[in-house]
Structures are given as structure tokens and as C-alpha cells.
């Protein structure tokens, strides 16, 4: 076994440009806090090599699915996350149980009124087999006799076997197709959850305006959720965001502000600071999503994506790898998976230049991190350390460049007929690198946060790539 999770290989590089993989110490680490906002006491990790270099074509032929039927868990019937399939019945299902007065409680009766009769069984003691039988689930297909509402489309995404991209024939790579959520991205999970919790707490009331800073996907998800619930919205992004994503944010009928890109995190024109300013100026009428620091961001993944992955892999997942911008996906999902099996390893995928590397590997304080270079990938990497990021969950990191991510997007499009966004390309690239570093029998799971339709003017546009020197 090589250096990601074991003994570093001999001759591990010590230059910053080559430090793609690292090992975090596991001894003496206490349980993760609910939301981590400052560096933990740091021990210098051992550095390893960049790992195997992927070839231009997939080096390993496809292999049969190792996990049998990939059952998608039942979608929640209310638009919140009270999924009966994941309620712990005391027999080791390991699910997160959500009570009416807990953090996952339904927001209001207008949402719960959409409840699906499938979940209105008054008989106590329903177990998973009965739920699956009543839902008529066969071969991983979820069918109901009654129509669905839009919130019911969120989550329960398929798990796709892309093990042909593994560098080892006996290591599997599985990918959650999060682009199948109704607004087209993984961010639907947090948008619905954050707004539901804000309504339940009274922070968000009828007539108010929802305000969110975003790299694009959260903006579209917030716009969709606001449209469903009757709120006006203002989303603030920057000029790096693709035209397709800006148009999507506008399509739901609200306001989109585009700020400069590349400005310092403390600059008044930074998109996060614009959100903060608008909310501060209109405290009675504006609700700020604050996705980068909102604990319900991380919680949304802990109570949905984590249980889905655990269920769909029958508990066989050994590694979860995902990029971070808010850090919510990798923190919340990783936290749940580790609660089920502490041996699950959680790895970040991160662009070169992002501040996560210096913060985690080099121990640079959150207040002192600085971007070392720019990157073109959207929705991954960060110029500051978000409060929603839980560094205690992270076991390792794989870094990649725009070339790695975009080449992977093009490769998957040409070979498998899937259009992936840049963060998905980075995640799959990182999973491929990781596959060469782990033991045979490992099951690596990653996420495809959005698809390439949002980047036709960029990743899949040769002229744009040439203009960026890619």
C-alpha cells in the first residue's frame, strides 16, 4: 500500500508543486465538532507522491458491478429529510432519526401537505423490507402510484459504476449522479434544508426576501426553493460563473447580481460580503442563507447524502472523495459515513491554488490563508476557510489542475456519453488517482455535483479553452 493512508513511499517530494497526496494523523483525534471554524491542533502529515499518472484512455476494462442492485433510497415525501427508510429502528440501520422538534423537523404545514400516501402508514414497526415492498421497488427502481411534488425529486440519486476509470481492476469507483436533482445540482439538498430550518425557527417569514452568495449552483437551488415557497430572492455571484448558470438563476424570476471575480475575501465587492451587507441593511425583510458558514449546509448532507451512499453500497464504501467550496458535502457526508464505520476514509479533491491545502497540510490559520494561484473550475476550491467545513473529518487530499478536471470531462463525454461539470471532472480525476493508492477490494464513492450542460460555453468550447491556455 502506498502513501495516502499508510507509510509514505521513499523519496516523497517536498516541493509544494508536487504535493498532491498527503496522510493525516489519526491518533489522538477526538470526535468532530458540529461545525469546525478554526484549525485543529496540527501534526505535520507525511507527504506522498502525486500517485499514478492517468493515461489518455481508461487503462482498466470495465468490470461487473460489485454491489449488486444499487437501490436508491426512498425520497422524502415532504421536501424535508424525514425519510422513513433511514429512521433507526434500534436494529442497527444506522440512520439519522429526525424528530419533530429536532434539527430536521418539517418547516411548515404547507410543505407537509404534500406528503405521499406511501409514507402515511399508521401501523407501527414498519421495517425496510415492508417499505421497499409497498413501494414496489425492483432492480433499484422506485415507483409510486401517486404523482410526485418537486421537493420529492431531491435526493435519492442513482449510484453510477464507473470502475473502468480505476487504476486497479479490484478497486471500484462509484459516482452519485447529483446533477439529476431538479435544479440540476447537488445544492438542492442544502437549499431546501436551510430554508426549511429558517422557516421553522422564524428567521424566514412570509414576505421576506432570500439572499444568497453563490458560485452558481446554490443560487439556482435557492431560486428554485424560493419559487416553490413564494419568496423573492437575490443571488450574488461573480464574473467567473458561466453564462448558463447565471441564466438559470434568473429563470426562476428573481434578481441576480454579478460581482467582480478574483477580489480578496475582505473586499466589499466580494460576493459573500455583498450578501452580508444587504442583509445587514435590511434585517427585517432579508434572510441571508450564508451557505459558507451555515451548519444546516453540513447537516443536509449528513442526513441525506451520507445515508444514501451507505445504503446504496450496502455499507461496503471504504473511501469517500469530494471537492469542497463550502466544505459541506465532504464534511457532512464524511461525518455520517464515519459514524457507521470509523474506518471509512474521507478525502478532499481540491484545485491547485485553493486555500484548503495550506490550512490542512501546512497548518496555516484560517485567518492567514491566501490563494496561491487562480483556477477556472467553478464551485470547488476556496479563497477562505468556511465555517461549514469540518477539518476533523478529513483524512487526505488529492489536488488537480484545470487540465486534469476538464480533460476528464471530455474523456467521459467521449467514452461514456455523460456531460460532467468541472467539479465532477475533478472528483473523478481524484478518485482515479486515489484508486491507484488504496488496497484491492476498496470501494471509492464520489459525487457528480452538476453536469456539463451548465458549461457548454466553457469546458466544451474549444475556443474558450484555447483562450485560457488549456
UniProtKB/TrEMBL annotation:
Pfam family, one: PALP
Domain Tryptophan synthase beta chain-like PALP: 152-450
CDD domains named among the record's database cross-references: CBS_like
GO BP, one annotated term: cysteine biosynthetic process from serine
Domain of life of the source: Eukaryota
Signal peptide residue numbers: none
Cofactor: pyridoxal 5'-phosphate
UniProt-annotated stretches for the region Disordered: 1-126
Keywords (A to Z) from UniProt: Pyridoxal phosphate
Transmembrane segments: none
Family: Belongs to the cysteine synthase/cystathionine beta-synthase family.
Entry-linked PANTHER family: CYSTATHIONINE BETA-SYNTHASE
Name of the protein this chain belongs to: Tryptophan synthase beta chain-like PALP domain-containing protein
Organism: Micromonas commoda (strain RCC299 / NOUM17 / CCMP2709) (Picoplanktonic green alga)
Amino acid at each position: 500500500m502506498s502513501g495516502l493512508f499508510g507509510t509514505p513511499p521513499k523519496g516523497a517530494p517536498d516541493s509544494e508543486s508536487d504535493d498532491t497526496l498527503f496522510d493525516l494523523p489519526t491518533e489522538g483525534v477526538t470526535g468532530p465538532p458540529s461545525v469546525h471554524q478554526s484549525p485543529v491542533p496540527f501534526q505535520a502529515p507525511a507527504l506522498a507522491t502525486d500517485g499514478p499518472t492517468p493515461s489518455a484512455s481508461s487503462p482498466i476494462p470495465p468490470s461487473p458491478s460489485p454491489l449488486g442492485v444499487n437501490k436508491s433510497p426512498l425520497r422524502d415525501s415532504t421536501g424535508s429529510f424525514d425519510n422513513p427508510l433511514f429512521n433507526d429502528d434500534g436494529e442497527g440501520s444506522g440512520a439519522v432519526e429526525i424528530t419533530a422538534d429536532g434539527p430536521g423537523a418539517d418547516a411548515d404545514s404547507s410543505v407537509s401537505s404534500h406528503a405521499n400516501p406511501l409514507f402515511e402508514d399508521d401501523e407501527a414497526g414498519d421495517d425496510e423490507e415492508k417499505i421497499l415492498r409497498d413501494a414496489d421497488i425492483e432492480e433499484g427502481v422506485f415507483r409510486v402510484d401517486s404523482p410526485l411534488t418537486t421537493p420529492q425529486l431531491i435526493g435519492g440519486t442513482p449510484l453510477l459504476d464507473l470502475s473502468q476509470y480505476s487504476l486497479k481492476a479490484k478497486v471500484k469507483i462509484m459516482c452519485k449522479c447529483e446533477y439529476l436533482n431538479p435544479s440540476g445540482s447537488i445544492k438542492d439538498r442544502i437549499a431546501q434544508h436551510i430554508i426549511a430550518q429558517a422557516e421553522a425557527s422564524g428567521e424566514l417569514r412570509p414576505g421576506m426576501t432570500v439572499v444568497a452568495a453563490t458560485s452558481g449552483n446554490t443560487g439556482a437551488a435557492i431560486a428554485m426553493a424560493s419559487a416553490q415557497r413564494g419568496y423573492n430572492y437575490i443571488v450574488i455571484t461573480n464574473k467567473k460563473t458561466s453564462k448558463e448558470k447565471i441564466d438559470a438563476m434568473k429563470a426562476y424570476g428573481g434578481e441576480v447580481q454579478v460581482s467582480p471575480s478574483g477580489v480578496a475575501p475582505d473586499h466589499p465587492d466580494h460576493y459573500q460580503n455583498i450578501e452580508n451587507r444587504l442583509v445587514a441593511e435590511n434585517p427585517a425583510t432579508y434572510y441571508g442563507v450564508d451557505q459558507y458558514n451555515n451548519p444546516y449546509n453540513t447537516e443536509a448532507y449528513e442526513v441525506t447524502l451520507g445515508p444514501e451512499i451507505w445504503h446504496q453500497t450496502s455499507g461496503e464504501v471504504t473511501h469517500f472523495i469530494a471537492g469542497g467550496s463550502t466544505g459541506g458535502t465532504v464534511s457532512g457526508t464524511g461525518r455520517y459515513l464515519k459514524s457507521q464505520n470509523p474506518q471509512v476514509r474521507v478525502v478532499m479533491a481540491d484545485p491547485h491554488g485553493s486555500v484548503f491545502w495550506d490550512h490542512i497540510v501546512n497548518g496555516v490559520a484560517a485567518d492567514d490563508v491566501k490563494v496561491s494561484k487562480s483556477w477556472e473550475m467553478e464551485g470547488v476550491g476556496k479563497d477562505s476557510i468556511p465555517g461549514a467545513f469540518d477539518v476533523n473529518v478529513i483524512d487526505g487530499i488529492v489536488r488537480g489542475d484545470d487540465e486534469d478536471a476538464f480533460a476528464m470531462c471530455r474523456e467521459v463525454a467521449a467514452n461514456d456519453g455523460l456531460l460532467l461539470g468541472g467539479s465532477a471532472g475533478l472528483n473523478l480525476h481524484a478518485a482515479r488517482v486515489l484508486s491507484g493508492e488504496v488496497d484491492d477490494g476498496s470501494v471509492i464513492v464520489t459525487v457528480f455535483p452538476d453536469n456539463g450542460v451548465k458549461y457548454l460555453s466553457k469546458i466544451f468550447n474549444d475556443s474558450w479553452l484555447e483562450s485560457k491556455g488549456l
